[in-house]
Amino acid sequence: MQVILEQGTWTLQILASPEELVMLRSIREADWAARRALRVGTVFGVSVFWAFNDGTVTTLIGHDDETWQIAMTMPVEAVNRLAAMAVNHLPEPREPEPDPLAPYPGQLEIF
């Protein structure tokens, strides 16, 4: 899934699966003051870290959340909307495949 974030004249294209983007629902727990960040998505194969501070979310693009090369800030409401939209793109849960070696009801088990 491609996410395009625009702010002013800057555009950031992040590749992330819906399962990854749903993790952004807990963005408020990624407290930058406590040096916590969520690792969600990539830009040109480089990790994107998301951190929350005073109602603002910062995306940090780099090899880790301490030595990043570029950052972009946005309101937390924008990230909340993104996470909510990702929920709608999650795949439907699948039934587990039956175990072909599991006994069926009434079958004698061989030990």
Keywords:
single chain; 15% helix; 37% strand; 6 strands; 111 residues; four-stranded antiparallel sheet; alpha+beta; two-stranded antiparallel ribbon
Report on the structure:
This protein has 111 residues and is an alpha+beta fold. It has one domain (2-87). 15% of the residues lie in helices and 37% in strands. It has two helices and six strands; from the N terminus they run ββαββββα. It has helices spanning 18-22, 76-87; strands spanning 2-7, 10-15, 38-43, 46-53, 56-62, 68-75. The strands form two sheets. The chain has a four-stranded antiparallel sheet with strand order 3-4-5-6. A two-stranded antiparallel ribbon has the order 1-2. A hairpin with a 2-residue loop joins strand 4 and strand 5 (56-62). The chain starts with a strand and ends in a 24-residue tail after the last helix.
Binned strand content: 35-45%
> Level of helix content?
10-25%
Give the total of domains. Answer: 1
From the spread of the alpha carbons, the general shape counts as elongated
Low-confidence stretches: none
Order of helices and strands: EEHEEEEH
* Record field, number of beta strands: 6
Mean pLDDT: 86
Strand order of the largest sheet: 3-4-5-6
Over the alpha carbons, how many angstroms does the gyration radius reach?
A: 20 Å
How many strands, which pairing sense, and closed or not: the largest β-sheet? 4 strands, antiparallel
Termini gap: 49 Å
